[in-house]
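Students often ask why inverse folding is considered easier than folding. One informal answer: many sequences map to the same fold, so there is more than one right answer. In these notes we will look at a single instance of the problem. The structure comes first.
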């Protein structure tokens, strides 16, 4: 049997076993809710803390991290994962109690509660959807397909692999909802983390645990002015990027909101923090640095190349299966949260208040899947996929975060003022990104956030004649 056949055989068997295990566990869990919205989008509010932790971890950890961060081939990128610990802590201790107290299905529902405006809720939800459908989903399919095509000698064309990933991911979302997504996340997560840790150790062994000869700028954790993460950015925009991603992003918070109680959800988030500290920073940067010594600067092809180099044939097939699972878990999570936002925030308020959720879930999932496949070629020419993702995030993240801060920190803010701030922020960051970039884009995240808050408060007073007042965070 050829090497390629062994790889594909192991890949196919493990992928099938994980699907069967997911089906068995979902049936075993029982307790399915009679409320179709709750069942499809919050797993009937029945996720125990291990599934919350597993789903949060694998939703975030996919090929855009493993491929994209290792593709930079420098330790510095670990700051994205290290600072995520702060973002998760803010979710557990600050935002999650607010979501549970307000019985939210979507994070944007909180905005409607605070401002009394379904229009603002719909606007922010639409921005989330634009980011998910036009940035995250196509990038996940592209990086997953790129990894598989790099690992296997005779892989199908990139677009065929991307289409397969998207189709299988949509099937999980359509057939099982969040419950199936979370279970698949958790079951595959053990394999993904274990295999990624093995790759890290084997990559270091391939260079005899000797990092000499690697340029110092690839080993430092203190970024200079021209690096992807200059060290002062850790004190400016970085913390707010993490606050947005972990505390207001529907894809992440939906898992924590699907627990039966606040305490159970918080336990899951804290378990995700422990997993992140122990595993994630090392596995997303160390193999890339080792690969620099082995192969030189090879960009986003790094991770697939180093896995193919250091792993035995049968194990590389197993790792490919788990990596495909990581792509699928992230893809299904973003797809499920996107459908949730559409159904709860746009379709039910503006189209039909009592839709057939099962059918609507299928139709919208297929539409979003098709768009994500069509956009794959656009991202295939990116110099660094992870830096591109973070930069594009700024178009949405800080404007959206400003609406949450205005609503939670202040009282007596008109929804129209918050909406003005959001629209202004999108335009401002677009100028910073495409026209004039005076400082590093992470610094510009903070500049954008502060400008949005200033515009929102000024419009609230000057146009709508309302004086904002500081209030207890999350109350009033």
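Output (designed amino acids):
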């Amino acid at each position: 049997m050829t090497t390629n056949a062994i790889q594909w055989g192991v890949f196919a068997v493990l992928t099938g076993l994980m699907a069967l295990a997911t089906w068995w566990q979902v049936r075993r869990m029982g307790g399915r809710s009679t409320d179709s919205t709750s069942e499809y989008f919050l797993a009937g509010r029945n996720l125990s803390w291990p599934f919350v932790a597993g789903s949060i971890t694998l939703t975030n950890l996919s090929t855009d991290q493993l491929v994209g961060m290792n593709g930079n081939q420098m330790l510095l990128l670990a700051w994205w994962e290290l600072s995520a610990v702060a973002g998760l802590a803010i979710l557990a201790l600050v935002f999650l109690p607010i979501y549970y107290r307000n019985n939210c299905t979507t994070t944007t529902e909180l905005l409607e509660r605070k401002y009394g405006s379904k229009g603002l809720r719909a606007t922010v939800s639409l921005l989330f959807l634009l980011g998910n459908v036009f940035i995250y989903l196509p990038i996940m399919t592209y990086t997953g397909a790129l990894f598989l095509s790099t690992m296997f000698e005779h892989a199908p064309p990139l677009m065929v692999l991307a289409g397969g990933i998207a189709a299988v991911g949509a099937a999980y979302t359509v057939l099982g909802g969040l419950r199936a997504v979370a279970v698949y996340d958790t079951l595959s997560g053990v394999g993904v983390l274990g295999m990624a840790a093995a790759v890290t150790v084997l990559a270091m062994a391939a260079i005899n645990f000797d990092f000499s000869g690697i340029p110092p700028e690839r080993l430092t954790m203190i970024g200079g002015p021209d690096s992807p993460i200059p060290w002062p950015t850790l004190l400016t925009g970085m913390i707010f990027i993490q606050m947005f991603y972990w505390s207001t992003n529907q894809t992440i918070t939906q898992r924590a909101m699907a627990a039966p109680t606040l305490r159970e959800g918080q336990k899951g988030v804290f378990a995700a923090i422990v997993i992140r500290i122990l595993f994630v920073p090392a596995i997303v940067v160390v193999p890339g640095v080792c690969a620099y010594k082995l192969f030189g600067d090879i960009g986003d092809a790094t991770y697939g190349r180093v896995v193919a180099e250091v792993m035995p044939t049968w194990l590389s097939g197993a790792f490919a299966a788990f990596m495909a699972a990581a792509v699928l878990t992230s893809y299904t999570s973003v797809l499920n949260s996107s459908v949730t936002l559409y159904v709860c925030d746009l379709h039910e308020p503006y189209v039909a208040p009592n839709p057939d959720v099962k059918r609507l879930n299928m139709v919208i999932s297929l539409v979003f899947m098709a768009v994500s496949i069509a956009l794959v070629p656009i991202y295939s020419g990116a110099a660094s996929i992870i830096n591109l993702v973070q930069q594009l995030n700024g178009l949405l993240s800080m404007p959206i975060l400003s609406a949450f801060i205005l609503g939670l920190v202040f009282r007596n803010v008109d929804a129209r003022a918050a909406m003005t701030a959001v629209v202004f922020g999108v335009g401002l960051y677009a100028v910073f990104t495409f026209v004039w970039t005076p400082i590093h884009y992470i610094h510009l995240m903070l500049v954008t956030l502060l400008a949005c808050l200033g515009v929102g408060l000024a419009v609230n007073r000057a146009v709508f004649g309302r004086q904002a007042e500081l209030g207890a965070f999350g109350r009033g």
